[in-house]
Amino acid sequence: MKFPTSLLSLTRFLLLLLLPFFSSAWLDVSVATNTQPQYHDLLHCLCSQEDAICNLIYTAQNSTAYASVLQFSIRNPRFSNNNASSSSSRTKPIAIVTPTTIPQVQSTVLCSRKHGLHLRVRSGGHDFEGASYASLSSPFLLLDLVNLRNVTVDVPSKSAWAQSGAVLAEVYHSIASASRTLAFPAGLCPTVGLGGHISGGGYGTTLRKFGMAADNIRDALLVDADGRVLDRAAMGEGVFWAIRGGGGNTYGIVVSWKLKLVRVPLRLSAFTVSRTASSDAEMTKLVDRYQRVTDKLPDDLMILVMIGAVDQGNSTKQVLQAAFQVMYLGGKERLLRVMNESFPELGLKEEDCKEMSWIESVLHFANYPSNSTYDVLLKSRTDSPISFAKLKAKSDYVGTPLPESALQGIWSRVHQVEAGAALLHLIPHGGMMSRISDSSTPYPYRAGTVYKIQYYVAWSGEQKEVEERHLGWIRKLHEFLTPFVSKNPRGAYANSRDLDLGMNDPTGETSYEQARVWGEQYFKHNFERLARVKAAIDPSNFFRNEQSVPPLSM
């Protein structure tokens, strides 16, 4: 596989791994047998509730559209085809339901529970481990929210109701169509589903000014295991707290969110500058300075960094390159003064800085062509290039700047052949993130966190040894950094799901003590509260996946 020759191209390449894959010819699904009486009883139950829902059910046996519907929102092909790699052990759904109304969601929940069929829920399909559409237990039904994506903006109240099946591109487009000075503080990737994004926290380019997506939710509509539709008042503050960052497919199905919109300038500064290091030591110096100032910059300023190895002309030798994604809620003159005072090592010049609207910054950071209008966001579900590379991700939190020895150790591993297309993404905290309590939502990494590290490795090929080689590389890198990152517990980001941390028993019988192994890495001290909320809202553990929170009774 030939990888990109610049970090900006590599970034685009890896971003495309998170976009839709539409060719159905290569999808060879491994589906649990449909001979179980519960399967036929389920279909009868659903169709008896409403005739229209019968046309929204897809199975491998009686629908030629099953493969394309399943694949439509799969963002990581590790879990989309059945091959000799380790991902082939995952089971695909025996049926897919794509409801168009909330009552149809209620019917699906009630019929699945009545007939003892496990249920998975998919919003945008960006789960790094495929847990929203593939399972280690079988059989199961997939409830795909792709048809529930309405967004209604109310400018006077600075709020919007958005259904969970909407992708961020659709949310952003609706907001920009209503106002050019309102925004929602969420992620960079346009095809991320809103439901899953908020369920794990959700961060973007205004994180340091406004906090996470989950910090900006006013209300929600939740379908619980009894099929009830509950708003914030009905579900209670405990459940409302849990659904905003405590993991998806756990407490019920959030079908809609009331978003708190934030005020942004009509014009702001947003751009990306790349720096290629002549030596690893030069990159160490640049990143070392970055990590010592990034959480202390003004709240209006956020600088994300992506680091990888790129080809050096016609040479076989690779060099390190860093792409700095800069977002400043103000003009470039003030930005240049701040940068020259705090981070002169970056060498930022006036010609590097670009002023634009908030919605134009969305297009920029999503790597759309510079001449694109924001209407291109409405085509994000279908007009995305195909990529066949597979992906594994891990995450860490840094509270003390990494020593030079750690940075040098990272670079040496990034140069290894096994790294393939590897990328490190540094996401700064500080600002508003340091002023929000670590128990305000389940996301606990607030004050004291300098930045989050996101690791990616990508590869192509169907051979098991190819996958294992790349998985081994990222696991060794993660292990190497153990002494330098957060401890007791070592932190991880829930939306960067990593089954290496531990998994629930496929039968759903995992105890709280067993789940603490991975649960406290995502949620720290908030994990116990999440488990108690789970016991109150879903004591039978109907909603579950490989890393859902198990119930903990009083």
TrEMBL record:
<protein>
    <recommendedName>
        <fullName>FAD-binding PCMH-type domain-containing protein</fullName>
    </recommendedName>
</protein>
<keyword id="KW-0732">Signal</keyword>
<dbReference type="InterPro" id="IPR006094">
    <property type="entry name" value="Oxid_FAD_bind_N"/>
</dbReference>
<dbReference type="InterPro" id="IPR016167">
    <property type="entry name" value="FAD-bd_PCMH_sub1"/>
</dbReference>
<keyword id="KW-0285">Flavoprotein</keyword>
<dbReference type="InterPro" id="IPR016169">
    <property type="entry name" value="FAD-bd_PCMH_sub2"/>
</dbReference>
<feature type="domain" description="FAD-binding PCMH-type">
    <location>
        <begin position="89"/>
        <end position="264"/>
    </location>
</feature>
<comment type="similarity">
    <text>Belongs to the oxygen-dependent FAD-linked oxidoreductase family.</text>
</comment>
<keyword id="KW-0274">FAD</keyword>
<dbReference type="Pfam" id="PF08031">
    <property type="entry name" value="BBE"/>
</dbReference>
<dbReference type="GO" id="GO:0071949">
    <property type="term" value="F:FAD binding"/>
</dbReference>
<dbReference type="Pfam" id="PF01565">
    <property type="entry name" value="FAD_binding_4"/>
</dbReference>
<dbReference type="GO" id="GO:0016491">
    <property type="term" value="F:oxidoreductase activity"/>
</dbReference>
<dbReference type="InterPro" id="IPR012951">
    <property type="entry name" value="BBE"/>
</dbReference>
<dbReference type="InterPro" id="IPR036318">
    <property type="entry name" value="FAD-bd_PCMH-like_sf"/>
</dbReference>
<keyword id="KW-0325">Glycoprotein</keyword>
<feature type="signal peptide">
    <location>
        <begin position="1"/>
        <end position="25"/>
    </location>
</feature>
<dbReference type="InterPro" id="IPR016166">
    <property type="entry name" value="FAD-bd_PCMH"/>
</dbReference>
